Amino acid sequence: MEKTNFLVSQIRGGFYFLLFVWFGVSSLASETVKVPIYGKGNYLSIDDVLVFFPEIRKHFDPIFDLVSLESPTGKLKFRIGSGFYTFDGKIEKISKKILEKDSTLYLPLELTEAILINLISYDVRYKFKSNELLLDIAKDVTPKKDINVKAIIIDPGHGGKDPGTSDAEGYFEKNVSLQVGRYLYLYLRKYYPEIRIIMTRKTDHFIELEERSRIANRILKDTRDSIFVSLHCNASLNEKANGFEIYYLSQSPSTEQAREVAILENKFVSAPKRQIAQIQSELLSSVTQRRSKRLASKIEESYGKNLSEAFPSRGVKKADFSVLRGSLMPAVLVEMGYLTNSGESKSLKDKEIQKQIARSIIKGIRSYSDAKD
């Protein structure tokens, strides 16, 4: 694997964050994206580019340092350190080599252009400037099915003084849930701008479990048709325990293990007992519970279909989660995988897997909306 030594200090700090400008082109609204170009060699980070094209799936083979990018229009492959790439088996030469630094891939401008031309089915207008790539993308660039809900509340679990569980290296659940939550927010905002998208937290800070429900219910009061998705990672004393599971609220846990998961996630409940008792005494809505179960089933189906290689399904389960208890709308809690399992911990920290999780949840929500009574 060839490592690049070009000066990261030459990265223009002002362009480190991607900038968005919305404007109209004739009758078609579009999005202009500025993507930073790094170093003297004119390279772009593959993550900076692919975040705007979720239809492209990336796979990395660490044994051969081989990267595959696949979309409905074809497959492009290249090897780190190489000056070649292939598209649908045909070899193409590029003038600069593909580089890697700190686990980030940097692509020459030629290869970035090849991705735009060969892997994107719709028209993307672009221009390379001295320090940035300008992309002009129509907002509705791919066919989509409507999501028949008016608001989606994304709840990245834990945060701040509540780190959640961690893997053997000390990487916390709160970080994984926030990163997946950000991808979920980005994709929903990009493809469903008509829907109100709320995150209970966008940074690493602590929010009471009951406050998360209150945030969701305030949105429900305005929209009357919302759903709530809480993101978490599982843990077990058994390092071999693995898989994902989707929960909906019930006062009667489906299994003893489900009850234990709820106890673990509820440990930072800090409201007075009299308030908790009052919340627990509220009657559950059969319609809301039915819809929550259906939402959980649809997300489980999509998650299992798209991520079965990384996380086997442990099914849909029910338990008494505090973060779901006060929600007056269809609500689910996604245990994305086990941080205490070394293999799943590695997957949960992988940016591409995180994006796949976000896309799978969206597909599950869309499937739920199609079947909603």
Describe it:
With 373 residues, the chain is an alpha+beta fold. It contains 10 helices and 18 strands. It is globular. The termini are far apart. The N terminus is likely disordered.
Rg over CA atoms, rounded to whole Å, is 22 Å
Shape: globular
Strand sequence of the main sheet, in spatial order? 14-13-15-18-16-17
What is the string of helix and strand elements?
EEEHEEEEEEEHEEEHEHEEHHHEHEHH
Gap between N and C termini, in Å? 54 Å
Tell me, rounded to a whole number, the average pLDDT. 82
Structural class: alpha+beta
Helix content: 25-40%
Strand content: 25-35%
Number of alpha- plus pi-helical segments: 10
- Total beta-strand segments: 18
Uncertain spans: 1-28, 271-282
Describe the largest sheet: 6 strands, mixed
State the main characteristics.
373 residues; five-stranded antiparallel β-sheet
Topology (SSEs and partners):
Layout: E1 19-25, E2 28-36, E3 43-45, H1 46-50, E4 57-61, E5 66-71, E6 74-79, E7 84-87, E8 90-93, E9 99-101, E10 104-108, H2 109-119, E11 125-128, E12 132-138, E13 151-156, H3 173-191, E14 196-199, H4 209-223, E15 226-234, E16 244-249, H5 256-265, H6 273-281, H7 286-307, E17 313-319, H8 322-325, E18 331-338, H9 342-348, H10 351-371
Parallel strand pairs: 13-14, 13-15, 15-18, 16-17
Antiparallel strand pairs: 1-2, 2-12, 3-10, 4-5, 5-6, 6-7, 7-8, 9-10, 11-12, 16-18
